[in-house]
Amino acid sequence: MRILGIETSCDETAVCLIEANGDFLGRAGGSDFSFKILGNALSSQAALHAQYGGVFPNLAKREHAKNLVPMLEKCLSEAAALKKYTGLPCVFDGLEELLIREKELLAQLVPFLETHEKPNIDAIAVTHGPGLEPALWVGVNFAKALSAVWNVPIVAVNHMEGHIVLSMMQKGQLAEFEFPVLALLISGGHTELVVMHEFGKYQLVGQTRDDAAGEAFDKVARMLGLPYPGGPEISKLATAAREQDVRSETKLPRPMLHEDNLDFSFSGLKTAVRKIVDASPDMSPDDKKKLAREFEDTVADVLVAKTLRAIDEFGANTLVVGGGVSANTYIRERLAETLADEGNIAKLLIPPPELATDNAIMIALAGYFHAARKDFTDQQNLSAKGNLKLA
Known about the structure:
Blueprint lengths: L1 E6 L4 E10 L12 E11 L1 H4 L7 H22 L16 H4 L4 H13 L7 E7 L3 H18 L3 E5 H9 L1 E2 L2 E2 L6 E6 L4 E8 L2 E7 L5 H11 L6 H14 L23 H13 L5 H30 L3 E5 L6 H13 L5 E3 L3 H4 L3 H12 L20
Parallel strand pairs: 1-4, 4-5, 8-11, 11-12
Antiparallel strand pairs: 1-2, 2-3, 6-7, 8-9, 9-10
């Protein structure tokens, strides 16, 4: 089965074509599922949003509309699935109505469809939430248009499920694992602990009550005068501080570390950093390194402690980690080392750093999971849902 994945939830415009086969829903560790990436294209808007210190929704929407057709063409070309149309001119009834709010996208899509044949695909998988709703709508409407013209079904994919599914893949196959599975999802918009007893059935057991971990990284980076995206910049300084074996004299609070629940809170941590920065307006580069290390140490301490508690409480045999913050080297190392120190109480599954951030591969993979069950979405019922929940 060939699945075309479309991702526009935030500031990456991504299109991917995969070919997947086998029992994706079956036995843990015994699945014959496999997949290969035929074509993959991604355009990042990070540099454009840097001037705002974060993602500006209307700019993201505009850039998605500008980039989707080029990314589709690049993806299909890489997959050797882009074929010039040589027949009579086509008529696409209803496209203007479908893309009434996406004039720039319509202007690019019509010439593309008029000059290229329908590719060999079986379904279109598109992110419909959670994320920035204006950005999501561009991808959703694009998927609707392609579905209508090519007469292929649509799968509506939850962005967070995409992160989980991708993290469970190794070398083109489903990794060996055992239920229950605990997923730690850490990104700019989410910090969640989710338990999965079978594929597609999720139980939310912990979440942030305010800022997400990635959001806290970006806001602290801005306080320190670091460029966007801030997470990697904080990590660079923290790594330098560890290499020089220097620490901050001020210890930051570990929010909710000892409370009897699995929730998170990073707003107070952000405020604590703000107080330190305000008290030292001429903070030296060395002091910034020390503070960055203390901040990253604090976030890692909380994430690791809460995750271990959830593993113990739910008897999880596998820990899946996904989301953009899972690319953080220090957090990855802390999780791996702690699980090893605890006697390998759960197997760790985590994607390579280059696939931790948003991409269309994860959307296509999650789409296959639903397409294999014939779980398609009616066009009329498909909409963008910025606050879509996984569980």
